[in-house]
Design goal:
heterodimer, A: 169 residues, alpha+beta, Glutaredoxin, 2 domains, four-stranded mixed β-sheet, 4 strands, B: 548 residues, alpha/beta, Rossmann fold, Ubiquitin-like (UB roll), 4 domains, five-stranded mixed β-sheet, 43% helix, globular, disordered C terminus
């Protein structure tokens, strides 16, 4: 078996009994459907929040597929992440319509306010910022997606207020 | 359904929800109960109502009064005045406004704007998507009953072929022909896939169909399954469309309960069921073979074609892959017949097309119009003219994988054949309208950045070509380009177009070619004069001085 399963890091979801139960439940429910890899990864991403190296090894073992194949799928899709996120994920749409409507300025502003770069998480684990491709709300451009909520026509001067709301939660 | 005397609709698009539409909805239900009106008035949340100026909006039928913006604390007054006492609560009526043509309830109320026609969006915004009964009341599942009990699979295919329905995903392939290819395959099981991985930036037509009228797509898939002899269907919805996924799942459960899905539908002995599959954020999965790979749980890398999915699709079996919008046309065609359908659009591209209008126009949004209307009509009638009275310079069709259409082509009818003859493509239906302040090189650079990021990396022309093209375009926008760069771009675009494995790399070449063909002077100005005529490129000032 891959090395990672033998030395599971201390704070890994696999070492937490509650999260381990969720992981096992997802695997158990999906293991027999053909092409389950993506379904399982999608559920893990949304319930656990990320897919750690140890989890990858574990899932590959349970689904009876090579770890390399699982990693291939995992790294292909932009939804899946291998590092923990903040409590809230703020995504800036960089689709053509949003780009033209000023998404780059929004990102610049967010980086200033939070003191982190794109793809990073604030030290208090409250917010992770990323860019994303079109979310399909182009008539509202520029669009910011926070968790599952969509905010349209966001102006840079409204951003501090918006971010503060989520930082406090 | 209960005998209701009034219908209340609450706008439920993301912007409304952000401004408290849910609270308004709950308050409405509470207040209506408090007045004892719950048996005579129905309250529904609907998807996009088509206006964004006074959200959240509350619309009351049969008077069709539009209230907005409505705050939760206004609800009591509104219910008491309008629903209980029967007077229009003028204080809350939304500001009057020239409305664009895409609004379902307006069309139903006062007739349509010139050239506007609804087939696909017939019920979107009019019914509660969470209630199968409302769909049935509006003629839903009639087509399925007709197909299953009165027609043979062959007759269904013949009807679709006669109607001349063509794929709305961008390629315009005749749907009837595709179905026939799958129907004549002997191997089973066969599959029906609905491509709802709508990832083109600027396109959101499929989202509105799925959110506003999910049963229409389900009905179409069952009909497709019956026609080609498949018993299993998949809807591949892009990961970002959480609401669409939820609505679909709910609709599928309701359809199963009513016997429109499952075993022995309409007592015809035909079985069909549908699974919803969520994508995970990869643009290339909109390509049909990549989508199939993804459904199989693999990396979404396109396969080499042929063989086409019609013979070797999901799990290597015959598979129909149709776009959401294409499918949404099917029940209407079966219900009203091919003759009726041919009455819309042009000879070779019958029916309607959904367009999302974006960019520098006064009204942005979604419209459904017959095939063959022109860009000029779209901009002046539906877009309500250019913003700030600026001049129209170009339109980018189809999100990213379309063409850059110059103003000189704005009177060319927008249908598959006319556009193909003019050397441009219709794409998936996004129209990004750009005025004179948009630089064509910058636009091409942004598009190329998108392709560079989304290229799956399987084949070289696309992986390297998009990267190189982006470097060159960046160089030009910074005033560091050379004339040799133009030749390189020309070569790159040819290579990408001819050698790429799938549509992504081929489409990436199109904006480059459109740019060089129609806007060469503007590009050369960047290179020779170090000037961006539109004034939007970050030309390095140092270079400008050396040139001068």
């Amino acid at each position: 078996m891959p090395e990672t399963l033998e030395r599971v890091p201390m704070r890994d979801p696999l070492t937490d009994p509650e999260q381990k139960r969720i992981i096992d439940e997802i695997l158990e429910r999906n293991k027999n459907i053909p092409g389950a890899t993506m379904v399982v990864l999608n559920e893990l991403q949304s319930r656990i929040g990320y897919i750690s190296p140890a989890m990858q090894a574990y899932v590959a073992q349970k689904l009876r597929i090579p770890l390399s194949e699982l990693y291939g799928v995992l790294s292909f899709y932009s939804f899946f992440t291998m590092t923990p996120r903040g409590r809230h994920t703020v995504k800036f749409c960089m689709g053509t319509a949003c780009y033209v409507a000023g998404a780059p300025q929004l990102i610049e502003k967010a980086q200033q306010i939070l003191g982190i770069r794109l793809g990073e998480t604030t030290p208090d684990w409250s917010i992770t910022i990323e860019e994303c491709r079109c979310v399909g709300a182009c008539s509202q451009a520029p669009v910011v997606m926070i968790d599952d909520d969509i905010y349209g026509r966001v102006r840079p001067n409204k951003l501090p207020q918006l971010l503060r709301k989520y930082q406090r939660q | 359904m209960k005998a209701i005397r009034a219908m209340v609709l609450v706008s439920g698009d993301p912007a409304s929800i952000a401004q408290g539409a849910h609270e308004v909805y709950q308050r409405l239900q509470k207040e209506i109960k408090a007045f004892g009106l719950q048996d005579e008035i129905s309250v529904s949340m609907i998807t996009d109502v088509g206006r964004h100026d006074a959200l959240p909006m509350v619309i009351v039928y049969p008077e069709a009064v539009i209230y907005g913006p409505v705050k939760p604390e206004d609800v009591h007054f509104l219910v008491e005045e309008h629903l209980y006492k029967g007077r229009i609560a003028t204080r809350l009526v939304a500001p009057k406004k020239e409305l664009s043509g895409r609004i379902a309830w307006l069309a139903a109320r006062q007739g349509t704007l010139p050239a506007e026609q609804r087939i696909v969006l017939e019920r979107v915004g009019l019914i509660d998507p969470d209630e199968i009964e409302e769909y049935i009341v509006h003629g839903g599942y009639e087509a399925l009953g007709k197909a299953l009990t009165q027609m043979t699979p062959n007759e269904v295919i013949e009807e679709i072929t006669q109607a001349g329905l063509r794929g709305r995903g961008g390629a315009g392939f005749p749907t009837g022909l595709k179905w026939r290819f799958v129907a004549r395959e002997k191997r089973t099981p066969k599959y029906v896939i609905c491509n709802a991985d709508e990832s083109e930036p600027g396109t959101f037509k499929d989202r509105l169909i799925l959110e506003g009228d999910p049963h229409n797509v389900i009905e179409a898939m069952v009909i497709t399954g019956y026609a080609v002899g498949a018993n299993e269907g998949y809807v591949y919805v892009r990961g970002e469309y959480k609401l669409a996924q939820a609505r679909l799942r709910k609709a599928i459960a309701q359809a199963r309960e009513m016997g429109f899905l499952g075993k022995d539908i309409f007592g015809s002995g035909f079985d069909f069921d549908i699974t919803v599959h969520a994508g995970a954020g990869a643009y290339v999965c909109g390509e049909e073979t990549a989508l199939i790979e993804s459904l199989e749980g693999k990396r979404g890398e396109p396969r080499i074609r042929p063989p086409y999915p019609t013979t070797h699709g999901l799990w290597g079996m015959p598979t129909v892959v149709n776009n959401v919008e294409t499918l949404a046309n099917v029940p209407a065609i079966i219900r009203h017949g091919a003759e009726w359908y041919r009455g819309f659009g042009t000879e070779n591209s019958p029916g309607t097309k959904l367009y999302t209008i974006l960019g520098n126009v006064n009204e942005t949004g979604l419209i459904e119009v017959p095939m063959g209307i022109t860009l000029r009509e779209v901009i002046t009638i539906y877009g309500q003219g250019m913003k700030n009275g600026a001049a129209f310079k170009m339109a980018q069709t189809g999100g990213s994988s379309g063409s850059i259409v110059p103003a000189s082509l704005q009177d060319t009818p927008m249908d598959f054949d006319s556009y193909a003859r003019a050397g441009v493509s219709l794409g998936s239906g996004a129209l990004l309208i750009c005025d004179e302040n948009t630089c064509v090189v910058d636009l091409a650079r942004v598009l190329m950045n998108f392709f560079r990021y989304e290229s799956c990396g399987k084949c070289t022309p696309c992986r390297v070509g998009t990267e190189r093209a982006h470097q060159i375009l960046t160089r030009i926008t910074e005033g560091r380009g050379t004339l040799a760069d133009l030749e390189r771009l020309e070569k790159l675009s040819q290579g990408m177009r001819q050698l790429s494995n799938c549509g992504l790399g081929q489409a990436a070449a199109v904006p480059l070619q459109s740019m060089l063909q129609h806007f060469r002077a503007e590009v050369e100005a960047h290179i020779k004069l170090h000037v961006c005529p539109a004034g939007s490129c970050p030309m390095s000032s140092r270079r400008v001085t050396t040139a001068a």
